[in-house]
Amino acid sequence: xxxxxxxxxxxxxxxxxxxxxxxxxxxxxxxxxxxxxxxxxxxxxxxxxxxxxxxxxxxxxxxxxxxxxxxxxxxxxxxxxxxxxxxxxxxxxxxxxxxxxxxxxxxxxxxxxxxxxxxxxxxxxxxxxxxxxxxxxxxxxxxxxxxxxxxxxxxxxxxxxxxxxxxxxxxx
Length: 172
What we know:
Layout: H1 4-25, H2 28-33, E1 38-44, E2 51-57, H3 60-85, H4 91-122, E3 125-131, E4 134-140, H5 146-157, E5 165-171
Parallel strand pairs: 4-5
Antiparallel strand pairs: 1-2, 3-4
Helix pairs in contact: 3-4
């Protein structure tokens, strides 16, 4: 005789099985088109069968810089995690590794908030890399304007109490 627990287990298991089979058999084109870098929007004109495609692409330079920074952070995190999970590491080594992990996470969140601030304030795509008291900003723009660079530096410095060394570079 099947009791309620077994019935629920079979129901949920069959649901998971069906969803996993669906996911595996789903065309890979659907997975690739749902990314953030290439978004395509199709709209039709009134009365016409013509489609208008608008594509939004982030600068290749900014993507490359983000990928490089993410790879570097992942490698550092893996090294720190190996220290934390090593049974032969001392308590002091584990504490230092944990503090470094916290600092990496804080630095990453500050970088993202500064990128968001630049996007909201100046409507410019940017990449921000923070290393101690040095902040490097790469802005994706054709126009190299010293006034905008100065304003970006002042905006970023306004977020910190201590003196930061900020550099702004324009690239397309």
